[in-house]
């Protein structure tokens, strides 16, 4: 992790005035991104995006992850308006998604689609992502990226990035790019590490930050929890004892993600858990070096992802057990 920063009251960046104790990461276009986001794209968080968004902001989370697909862009800005925060105190991410039934967006309609997002949000999002490499017809990724670059150059978009991009998708847009994508948002947790290594290598070479979603998969979605379960439980018990707080295995995974230099995009529609997320956002690094290494090494003994889709297409899987 090379670009981990804790915001301080003396910093002048608007994001730094959000919440002085939530660490952020530097992006390669010179902006900063808070290390943890509450997403309104899944579960109850999506169904009750306005109410839960208000709770997330009140709890101390100042980074909301939305997308055209989630149909929660309006609720995102409404939650901010209902909160005690100003627009510039919240980091907003949205995404260009495929149409209903996954129909790709014709390249001639991309600008209009971006403008409609901005209209729904009532503001330019801090970060705008290409939701996946199939949001435009085959062979059009480079053309799509050029449109986003032009919008950024014209001040009509701020930071631009991608999501669910495999090595070949990244290489396609990096070739001749005027602006590199600042992030790639991926399903990222210890059980995806071996498979993702080729993507992570490209990102390290170019300074592209990883954002994780599905981060809690080893606990919530992997049958039995697998070999990480006892390790996570042991570490959760140790840090709970050391801090006198009740810190569970989800906290351990989120802290492991942060220490990798990865932005954690998580979600909750449960008021108590949303409140806890605000507390997790400001926790110091509680994991010991040997614990971080153990989580990484044990994670690398299994390959498992919840969101498969194209990530397992034309992207070779590692020879590892997946159950
Ligand atoms: N770019 C993409 O393609 C993509 C794909 C998927 C997601 N995302 C983004 O990432 C966000 C998070 O995605 P995710 O849902 O996969 O993230 P996640 O962090 O892996 O899981 C969040 C879920 O975990 C549950 N949870 C948290 N702590 C728990 C606990 N202690 N016990 C039981 N359940 C617990 C929450 O349920 P409760 O509501 O009950 O707390 C919530 O539904 C989305 O909302 C979206 O913004 C992006």
Automatic annotation (TrEMBL):
The keyword NADP applies. One of its GO terms (molecular function) is oxidoreductase activity, acting on the CH-OH group of donors, NAD or NADP as acceptor. Keywords: NADP, Oxidoreductase. The lineage of its organism: Eukaryota, Fungi, Dikarya, Basidiomycota, Agaricomycotina. InterPro entries: AKR, NAD(P)_OxRdtase_dom_sf, NADP_OxRdtase_dom. Belongs to the aldo/keto reductase family. The record marks 95 as: Lowers pKa of active site Tyr. The active site is at 70 (proton donor). Residues 42-216 form the NADP-dependent oxidoreductase domain. SUPFAM superfamilies: NAD(P)-linked oxidoreductase. Coiled coil: none annotated. Substrate binds at residue 131. This is NADP-dependent oxidoreductase domain-containing protein.
């Amino acid at each position: 992790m090379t670009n981990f920063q804790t915001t301080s009251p003396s910093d002048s960046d608007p994001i730094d005035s959000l919440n002085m104790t939530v660490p952020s990461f530097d992006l390669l276009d010179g902006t900063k991104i808070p290390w943890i986001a509450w997403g309104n794209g899944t579960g109850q968080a999506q169904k009750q995006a306005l109410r839960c968004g208000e709770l997330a902001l009140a709890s101390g989370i100042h980074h909301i992850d939305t997308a055209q697909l989630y149909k929660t862009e309006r609720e995102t800005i409404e939650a901010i308006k209902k909160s005690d925060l100003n627009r510039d105190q919240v980091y907003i991410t949205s995404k260009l998604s495929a149409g209903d039934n996954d129909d790709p967006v014709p390249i001639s309609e991309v600008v209009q689609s971006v403008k409609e997002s901005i209209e729904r949000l009532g503001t330019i999002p801090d970060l705008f992502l290409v939701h996946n490499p199939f949001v435009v017809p085959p062979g059009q990724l480079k053309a799509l990226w050029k449109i986003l670059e032009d919008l950024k150059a014209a001040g009509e978009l701020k930071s631009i990035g991608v999501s669910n991009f495999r090595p070949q998708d990244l290489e396609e847009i990096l070739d001749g790019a005027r602006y590199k994508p600042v992030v790639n948002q991926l399903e990222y947790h210890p059980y995806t590490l071996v498979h993702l290594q080729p993507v992570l290598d490209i990102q390290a070479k170019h300074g592209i930050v990883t954002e994780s979603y599905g981060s809690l998969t080893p606990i919530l979605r992997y049958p039995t929890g697998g070999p990480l379960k006892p390790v996570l439980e042991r570490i959760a018990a140790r840090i709970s004892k050391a801090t006198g707080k009740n810190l569970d295995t989800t906290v351990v995974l989120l802290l492991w993600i942060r220490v990798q230099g990865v932005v954690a995009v998580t979600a909750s529609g449960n008021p108590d858990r949303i409140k806890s997320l605000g507390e997790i956002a400001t926790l110091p690094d509680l994991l010991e070096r040997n614990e971080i290494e153990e989580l990484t090494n044990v994670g690398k003994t299994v390959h498992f992802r919840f969101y498969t889709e194209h990530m397992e297409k034309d992207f070779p899987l590692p020879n590892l057990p997946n159950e």
